[in-house]
Known about the structure:
Blueprint: H1 6-15, E1 20-25, H2 32-45, E2 49-52, H3 62-72, E3 77-79, E4 93-99, H4 105-120, E5 125-133, H5 141-146, H6 156-168, E6 173-177, H7 188-197, E7 202-205, H8 211-220, E8 224-227, H9 229-233, H10 238-246
Parallel strand pairs: 1-2, 1-8, 2-3, 3-4, 4-5, 5-6, 6-7, 7-8
Amino acid sequence: MEMPKVSHIIDGARERNKKLLAVLIDPDKPTYAELEKLCGQAVQSGADLIFVGGSLLSSDSLENCLSGIRANCTIPIILFPGSVLQISDKADGILFLSLISGRNPDLLIGNQVIAAPYLKSSKLEVLPTAYMLVDCGNTTTAIYMSNSTPLPYDKPDIAACTAIAGEYLGLRYFYMDGGSGARKTVDPTMIKAVRKSIERPIIVGGGIRDAASARKIAEAGADVIVVGNLFEKEPEAMGEIAKAIHEI
Ligand code: 1GP
């Protein structure tokens, strides 16, 4: 059976007001045996999507990681690239990120120009994504590597204006991220402000470590909830998180 397009999965869920759980795998981290276990747990817990990527990779492990995931489950795989080096046809789609919270031209348009011809000749589904980094209490690798100033934690209005601008620019998905290992999650108040301002699907991640916060984030208006660290460290905890957001 052919896999539905990633955009259909996310847009369809948004239309039906169903929330999705995306688990994030950093290709640097798991061994093949750990990948097998992670995929098993992702399936068992009912994860809807697998994001793959990292803000800074220190090994050439992306291709093997993608093959390992593909061999062990049928959950759609979406690249969440930390750089132009993280492109591979072995995934189903790619978040084509433009870092609209920052003012670093390389991450607004420069890297996109470099990646464009590769994506054009690939089979990847390209998902134009407004990427908004939020200061959630610590300088995460994503924030440091972006060489940009993140959105201030307690300024929902700035986040809303940024998202509206992203929508006017034609971006289709909105990712609010504290970065992996963020001390706290994005404030639900900020998510609500963005939800009121734009129509398109919102993805939220960074620092989500329990079902109660995942639920609050989903109730505030996030359509896709991304969990990375917790999934890698305690994959068995995903069942509770999936249940909390799926029953909304
Ligand atoms: C980071 O949103 C992701 O970009 C996931 O963050 O690893 O903190 O869950 P965590």
